């Protein structure tokens, strides 16, 4: 029997459980509301709590119009206007400061047009060469080879090398004043050189025997590239008339001072014809090598003897020595060797074979008349030894190391799918159900970004490695479906050897080659592929290249599906291809323009030898 409750002797009626629950819930809600709205007002605002009690929180307002970027329902917009020289074959690009956008199509509104960084301004560097003097063909050829070496070296360092001639001198109004003076031939040539420079204006003037031999980040080379010079003309200690830098106003003032000097006829050179305070002398010239007569006689007596025997032969020998020094300097800068990146190392040997062959050419010792010699500015260099060439590795990842040069082969997603799966019957069903997304870029950036990162940040990191100022001079990225460009001498700044050399190691006749121990491969370079698989890789790679050239409807469907499934890999492939194509377009147009001047001196004679036959097996 239930217990009867009472108050003051009167019985209390029992409340049903449902009503009790509603009552308790109402009391709880009332208590919470009371605490929220009344408690802050009851706390005195002190110096430690005032900033919290005085702050008013407001909910963000939803905009009435959603911005266009990232809005899938935005209205159609016109693509940016096409820029000049923005196509080369199948490669198309658009230059903009927002080039680090993960996916170019969000800016270009064109799936096949890559967004590249604006072209860097190349400051002009001038040299003077009188092509009007009558010379025999052998001497002209030797001088042209020297000028070509000079142009390549400075172009690779980010400058625009320009050869001046008497035409620029005669275009200067001060030339009439120079004609009135009866100067010796050497001094007259020196004055014509300065008048030609003054006619062009601000920049750098150097002898064509002055070449850059140092890293791209060297302070002197970086200073000259900026194109901002001090309040005086600048020259370098112990380099004499090897190189000058300055602005148009200071060049003009110095030339007028020299022409107005009554003792000009007695001077030896331009430096002696102007006051000593005309120049600011920099004692640092570690990255500049000047092969003047004094240096050649002191450091390279064998070459000096060639000059005494024959001028053209001496120039040819000196040119070989300079090219060898440029190559060995590059090897000293990248002392850790060359990394030929190889993501998915099981079946990418055929795809990276051209890049590896290029690395072997770069790693071998250059042909030199003095193999153990060093450049004039680097007396403590490490000459190349054939028995211990530069190390070549094939890691699956990209490492951002200053002393390691990287050569990358970027495959199209279809090429990557064919080689990684080792099958050529790729269809949409396999792409969606069995293939991984962006396998090449994910493997390449695994060490830099880890595994739990999406494709967008990986693309940004890759673009920095390819197209940043640092990355451009520390790496080379080529397409797996294209041949290695034949004009990479301009990229590296020296003539690349195109033949294998003896490693200098002697081997005893016993035991025979078949019984000698085979070299142990480095596990970090990936597994060793047998010859049968190599041949299969070549066949699959050939089919992948043919697939890229065909445009049938079924193949376009597969191509569209695999590119949509691998957005990051596709972006990386298009970006690397377009960046290399643009660099070639820039150089070729500049070279065609410069052929009009100085009688075409310094131009490449005949057709380039190319790389094709060196990669044929």
List keywords for this structure.
six-stranded mixed β-sheet, alpha/beta, 10% strand, four-stranded parallel β-sheet, 617 residues
Report the span from N to C terminus: 105 Å
Percent of residues in helices comes to 40-55%
Number of strands: 17
**What's the arrangement of strands in the largest beta sheet?**
7-6-8-11-10-12
Form type: elongated
The helix/strand class is alpha/beta
Description:
- The chain is α/β, with parallel strands linked by helices.
- The protein has 24 helices and 17 strands.
- The protein has a 6-stranded mixed β-sheet with strand order 7-6-8-11-10-12, with helices on both faces. It has a 4-stranded parallel β-sheet with strand order 15-14-16-17, sandwiched between helices.
- Strand 6 (124-128), helix 4 and strand 7 (160-164) form a beta-alpha-beta unit.
- It is elongated, with a radius of gyration of 35 Å.
- The model is unreliable at 49-53 and 607-617 (pLDDT under 50).
Could you outline the blueprint of secondary structure elements for this entry?
Elements: E1 6-7, E2 10-11, H1 17-42, H2 50-53, E3 87-88, E4 91-95, H3 105-108, E5 113-116, E6 124-128, H4 137-156, E7 160-164, H5 166-170, H6 175-179, H7 185-200, E8 203-206, E9 210-212, H8 219-226, E10 233-236, E11 243-246, H9 248-259, H10 270-273, E12 279-282, E13 288-290, H11 293-299, H12 301-309, H13 311-333, E14 338-340, H14 349-363, E15 392-393, E16 405-410, H15 413-421, H16 428-433, H17 439-444, H18 446-449, H19 455-467, H20 469-472, E17 475-479, H21 489-492, H22 531-549, H23 553-565, H24 567-594
